[in-house]
Structure formats: C-alpha cells, structure tokens
Predict the 3D structure of the following.
Amino acid sequence: MSNDNDYRFFLAHDRKTEDEQINEWRDSLTESLGEAFPEHNVTVIAGRDDYLNRSKDAGGWKAWPQSVVTGCLWDGAPRFHGIIRPAQHVGVMDTVCGKPTYEMIEGFLREGKTAWVWDRRTNVHHKATGVARLPGDDFKAWGRVVVREEGGGE
C-alpha cells in the first residue's frame, strides 16, 4: 500500500550496466536517500527491474518510458517521485544519455518532479535543470542532462 510517506525513485542506468553494479547503486542510493529523507520510506527501483516487471503491460519499449514518468499506482500515487541518472563525472560529456533516458528526464522535469544526476565519484546529487538534444540520430547519445551552464558553476 502506498502512502504520502513513500518516495519512489527511478534509477536511470545504462542498459549495458552490469547487474552487480546496478544492485550496488540501488542499495547505496536507497540508503543515502533514506538518510536524506528520514521522514519517508525511500525505495530506489532500477530501470532494469521496472522494465522487466512492467514494460509489457505498459505497451512495450516505446510506451514504457512515458509510464515511468506519468504512471500511477492503484491508489493514484505517482509510480515514481523522481529520477536519478548516475554519472562518473558531472559535466558536459558525462551527462550524455540515450533517447529513453532523455525522454524520461525531460518528462520528470515537465511534470515538476525531481530529476538528479548523481556523481558517483563524489556521491553528490546535482539537480537537473533541463535537457539538451545532441546532433544526429544516435539513440545511445541522444542528448545530455543539463545541471549547470557550460563553463559556469552550479
């Protein structure tokens, strides 16, 4: 059962990230976000797990990202309150993401939900302020997550 104290975050990792790494990130983020939001029950759900459990019912690969953004639980609560994109270094090139992740982050921002880029090196969460489309049609490098102006501070 969902309640107002439940916070669910979507972990937007790369598709080819190793399962062991995804599990480690999920557990680490669940713990750190639990400490950051002690009044809430925090759950971090890996994109891999959500896709395996829900994508077919959500309409497949093309429809699933939208269900991550706007989906609700049976009681009307948001399926996810926020999205977290891991990055090795937060900056222009390391915040690049594929088309589904780009569309999800864009959707979370549009919906007024939380969108972060998590710098794994420093364990700092940077608030996403937008997304920027990259030239070309490379689905693996569709755009980048903007956390600060290029050349500027945060």
Notes: The chain has one domain: 6-146. Strands lie at 6-11, 41-46, 82-87, 96-97, 114-119, 124-127, 130-133, 143-146. DSSP finds four helices and eight strands in the chain.
